[in-house]
Design goal:
The chain has 499 residues and is mainly beta. 12% of the residues lie in helices and 39% in strands. It has four helices and 37 strands. Strands 9-8-7-6-12 form a five-stranded mixed beta sheet, with no helix packed on it. The longest helix is centred in the first third of the chain and has 39 residues, at 3-41. It is globular. The N and C termini lie far apart (65 Å).
């Protein structure tokens, strides 16, 4: 090949090289624009709601989910992992620890467009339950006010590490009552205190010749000072003296007390006033039959002049009998109400009065709350009815059939939606699926929390869900603008905006 031919060949190949380079640059530019566009499409939208604290959803979530904001450990000034978070006094308290990082509490105000860090405080290593108590939290023996993060009290007597509301007489663990929800420290969460005091019953740790009790129950104030104490002897035969307070919802500050707590047939013979430790003796009742209502307790009994005729027995909060109402062919059994959960207009769990219970048993209608969900009495591990309407699910064949939604279901305030893991399906191989948004009662899936990179969430406001992110394994997904973004530790989720 001559020199002239070589130059001619190079001139002919040059446009091809340029074209290939141009194509490569164009593809890269389009890809960059796509990534940028995706990032812009997936930027947090901020929170713009009315900050109404609720345990229910806003119907606005029918449009789906948007990410209001994301927070990283750097944003919060903490290291380690997010272990727990809780709404306390209108604010969010988040607890971080692990990974050789100090345990740290962070107080957040979520009412603005983006969260504001109010305070952060390092705490000693936590090996006992954490409590959300009125305007404070109790963590590692310190009472910390949530408004400003100040330590208002230090407990001289630490809360036992091995403690639970699940009575364990065999292992002699300390027993606790907080006036409502059961306490299980293994959950690693904050336990809500709904009583002026928490009651801790310490098991005997010396021979009975030295300690003349089975348990010593102490009432503790929020500042760690002792409010009262009494000794407990548990026996199925000797029904003299006080017993252990049952871990049930308190009514006007009272909870039933059982003297034979270690036995299946727990007999209640007294009621404890949690604030001052006063015990009121009562007739003996089976603890399983007592149901708390707004103005006391109800249970089924007999009409005095006709032992074969059932009656609704009404008790005052302290266990004093108030009335017996004849139950003539009721449309609903009292035991059915154990499978009903209702909420008021503000999203709080609602309880009927004893009079409303009597009306419901006679008519079969629940008129004392705007929103109620009900379980099947023969299979009580999920909700199957909402406001009298049978809940539906879509089966694997694409058809519709009666559905049963897990106990963790979160309904909308107007009963139109449900945020829930999928309804129970025996054929499903996914044992821990994410929460989805369903229309009620049709069970049609409208959206999934996986759309915004989380699996589970809980309401903080009715229009703001709080969630830990589900970080994708693929780096491409993270950097193509999908949620969650790298290093996110906490997310706020709001209803999807139009357009």
């Amino acid at each position: 090949m001559t020199l002239s031919n070589t130059l001619t060949s190079r001139r002919k190949s040059l446009p091809t090289i340029v074209r290939r380079l141009a194509i490569t640059l164009s593809v890269a530019l389009v890809g960059a624009l796509a990534v940028g566009s995706s990032w812009l499409m997936h930027r947090p939208v901020g929170y713009s709601g009315d900050a109404h604290t609720s345990s229910l959803l806003s119907p606005d979530f029918a449009s789906g989910f948007d990410v209001a904001w994301e927070l990283t450990g750097e944003d919060l000034g903490v290291g380690g992992s997010l272990w727990a978070y809780k709404e306390v006094d209108g604010r969010l308290v988040a607890f971080f620890g692990g990974q050789d990082q100090p345990s740290t509490l962070v107080g957040l105000d979520l009412s603005g467009e983006n969260p504001s860090v109010l305070w952060r405080r390092e705490v000693p290593d936590v090996d006992s339950p954490m409590f959300a108590w009125e305007d404070s939290v109790v963590v590692a023996g310190q009472t910390i006010r949530v408004a400003d993060g100040e330590v208002t009290a230090t407990w001289d007597t630490p809360i036992p590490t091995h403690i639970s509301s699940d009575f364990d007489d065999f292992n002699k663990k300390a027993f606790i009552n907080v006036g409502g929800d059961e306490v299980n420290p293994a959950n690693g969460d904050f336990s809500r205190v709904t009583s002026p005091v928490i009651v801790i019953c310490y098991p005997r740790d010396k021979p009975d010749a030295v300690q003349d009790f089975d348990y010593l129950c102490l009432g503790w104030n929020k500042d760690g000072t002792e409010a009262w104490r009494y000794k407990v002897n548990l026996s199925p035969h000797d029904l003299q003296g006080p017993g252990l307070p049952l871990p049930v919802t308190a009514v006007d500050g009272y909870v039933p007390v059982s003297r034979n707590f270690g036995y299946a047939d727990r007999q209640v013979g007294a009621f404890l006033h949690l604030a001052d430790g006063v015990l009121v003796e009562s007739a003996t009742y089976n603890a399983k039959t007592l149901r708390p209502v707004a103005d006391g307790w109800v249970l089924e009994g007999a009409v005095p002049d006709d032992p074969q005729q059932r009656a609704l027995v009404t008790l005052a909060p302290d266990g004093t009998e108030v009335s017996r109402t004849r139950l003539a062919d009721p449309l609903m059994q009292l035991s059915d109400l154990y499978f009903v959960k209702c909420w008021d207009e503000d999203g709080r769990v609602a309880r009927p009065t004893s009079e409303q219970v009597a009306s419901t048993l006679a008519t079969g209608e629940v008129t004392w709350a705007p929103l109620c969900m009900q379980k099947n009495r023969y299979s009580s591990n999920g909700f199957s009815v909402m406001n009298g309407r049978r809940l539906i699910m879509t089966n694997t064949a694409g058809g519709s059939e009666p559905g049963m939604y897990p106990d963790t279901v979160i309904p909308a305030a107007d009963g139109s939606l449900m945020l829930s893991q999928p309804p129970k399906d025996e054929d499903s191989t996914n044992k821990n699926p994410s929460m989805n948004l369903y229309a009620a009662p049709s069970g049609i899936q409208l959206a999934s929390l996986e759309d915004v990179g989380v699996r589970y969430a809980q309401p903080f406001y009715d229009d703001l869900l709080i969630a830990k992110p589900n970080h994708p394994d693929s780096s491409w997904r993270r950097y193509l603008g999908t949620y969650p973004h790298p290093d996110t530790v906490l997310m706020g989720i709001t209803p999807k905006r139009a357009g």
